[in-house]
Amino acid sequence: MNAPERWRRPAPRRADPGTEIFPGDAAPDQDADPAGRPGRRGRRRGRDRSPEGPTPGSPAAQGPPADPEAVAREICLRQLSFSPKTRAQLADALRRKGVPDDVAERVLSRYSEVGLIDDAAFARAWVESRHAGRGLARRALAAELRRRGVADETVSEAVEELGPEQEEAAARELVARRLAGTRGLDPVKRTRRLMGMLARKGYSGGLAYRVVRETLEAEGADELPDLSFDD
Asked: Which end of the chain is least crowded, N or C, by CB within 10 Å?
């Protein structure tokens, strides 16, 4: 039985063989869905369309070689923007980036002239900050500065600004902070533990023992070990 006339679908109209598709006409998309959205093939073609310009990696895309001094200045400024650096630290950074030694020397010398690099100021600030924040003694501070490439003379001048009275006061404060954590141990173990803490912060054995012994004796401890030190 034939379907009623109103239910019959009209047959799709076929384009004439000679019909042209002009700009503005939609080209048929074989992957389009019933809602008229372009299919994956259509989206892929649009996504792969490259912007105008030279192909990446081609000779046309390669600009002139960078100026080595400009590269060195940029590296130094970037390093200094994070935190103060010594001249040796910046020289290491330039060496790792492949900057020629003569170029690095010119840039570092210029930055030293204008005050962007100042190892003496770096050392003084380092001593003040690390002593106040971590309670480090002169010996530990000197070792840290040398590891950062500061010259021995500059290191000595910086740590000498930390007087013996300041160093001893810091040692007593460190012991007072750790004292409660050693209660319950015998006096010998308490002495060793507290002295070990001070030694790791750079305090000499003589100063560490004297401060620990006096602190424990003030608390009433007895049977403390009898030690002697040359320093």
From this structure: N
